[in-house]
Design brief:
Layout lengths: L3 H15 L10 E5 L4 E3 L11 E5 L3 H15 L7 H14 L4 H12 L8 E3 L1
Parallel strand pairs: 1-3
Antiparallel strand pairs: 2-4
């Protein structure tokens, strides 16, 4: 299985390239699996203070809320304004690949990248 954190890393880099104003913003990589899967990962990826999190689907809402609470308590990063959020949304919406041929090409290219054998999921 491809390492989803490596895939998310690539996606975050793509987002940063489309949003240069927010290049230094805090990005959190959150991967969720159904309970049918069993994963064996570094325990640090299960700790809420990490910005790379792996959770089961039944924990997803709780983890998101806990992470949001922690970020609010830290107050390390300036909060985004409504204008920032709208601008980010519009920019990302425009960057979505809608052409099915280009999407297939992207998936093919991504298929050859980001294997990490230290990551294990059993389903």
């Amino acid at each position: 299985m491809y390492n989803p954190f490596m895939q998310n890393y690539g996606h975050i880099q793509a987002i940063k390239s489309v949003l240069p104003k927010y290049r230094e913003a805090r990005y959190i990589s959150l991967v969720s699996f159904t309970m049918r899967c069993r994963f064996s990962v570094d325990p640090e990826l299960r700790k809420i203070q990490s910005d790379d999190l792996i959770v089961y689907d039944v924990e997803l809402s709780e983890y998101i809320q806990r992470k949001m609470n922690r970020i609010q308590a830290e107050k390390l990063n300036p909060e985004l304004t409504e204008s920032d959020i709208q601008s980010i949304y519009e920019t990302l919406s425009e960057a979505i690949i809608t052409d099915s041929r280009l999407r297939a090409e992207h998936v093919d290219k991504a298929g050859g990248v980001s294997r990490d054998h230290s990551y294990h999921v059993k389903s």
